[in-house]
Design a protein that fits this description.
about 220 residues; mainly alpha; about 55% helix; globular
């Protein structure tokens, strides 16, 4: 009977963590979520680290494992993320600890950024594409239009740096909008806040990502 009791307790210990992960699956650290607010409530310190529980060992990155983590950074249990710092700076800090080659760093950055943008809506339980664009329209202070196509057209007229958009959400600020693609291009290159275009994907990326290499040809 003692052995059976111990086996039952061991089984419960194994099941409990996975249950917790499923419950927290949609909580992505960003300024728009309560997850970051909870961290901020514990301490007013800007550099309060993320308190997300990590597995004991590193888990290989895949589309399957990605779905069980609250944040891209949770794949790296030895790394402490500061959820109210710039995502670019946090990723750069992580990359130094991983000793990735340039191509792998580029790939991982794209994965990190894509998940940050998409995870924002998952955390709000907004899964419909039109609803996501309406939410983005309100965020960027334009009128949310009645159809998906209308929303898409309106948002494509705006010029926003996507790294700044993610940071604005993490820091609970408004994102700056540029008057032209040329202005956005100059700023993005100067600050090196450039979204990895080759592997970019997602609803927000589809409407806000701009070709900044030759803005004069792309128009305003």
């Amino acid at each position: 009977m003692l052995q059976a009791s111990l086996e039952f307790e061991d089984l419960a210990a194994l099941v409990a963590p996975s249950t917790t992960l499923r419950r927290e699956q949609l909580l992505i650290p960003s300024a728009a979520t309560k997850a970051s607010s909870d961290c901020a409530n514990e301490s007013s310190d800007f550099d309060t680290p993320s308190t997300t529980c990590h597995p004991a060992q590193s888990v290989p990155m895949s589309s399957t494992s990605a779905s069980i983590y609250a944040s891209y950074f949770d794949r790296f249990p030895a790394f402490t993320q500061y959820p109210r710092r710039s995502i670019r700076d946090e990723f750069d800090r992580l990359a130094k600890t991983q000793h990735w080659q340039p191509e792998e760093t580029k790939h991982q950055r794209a994965t990190c950024y894509n998940e940050e943008l998409e995870g924002h809506y998952a955390s709000l339980h907004i899964h419909d594409k039109h609803e996501r664009l309406k939410h983005l329209s309100v965020e960027l202070e334009i009128e949310p239009l009645d159809t998906f196509i209308e929303c898409k057209k309106a948002l494509r007229k705006l010029h926003v740096n996507l790294v700044d958009l993610m940071d604005a959400r993490r820091m609970d600020k408004k994102v700056h909008q540029f008057n032209s693609l040329k202005e956005l291009s100059i700023y993005s290159k100067k600050t090196k806040k450039i979204y990895p275009q080759d592997e970019a994907e997602g609803d927000v990326v589809e409407v806000l990502l701009r070709h900044i290499d030759n803005p004069s040809r792309a128009g305003k």
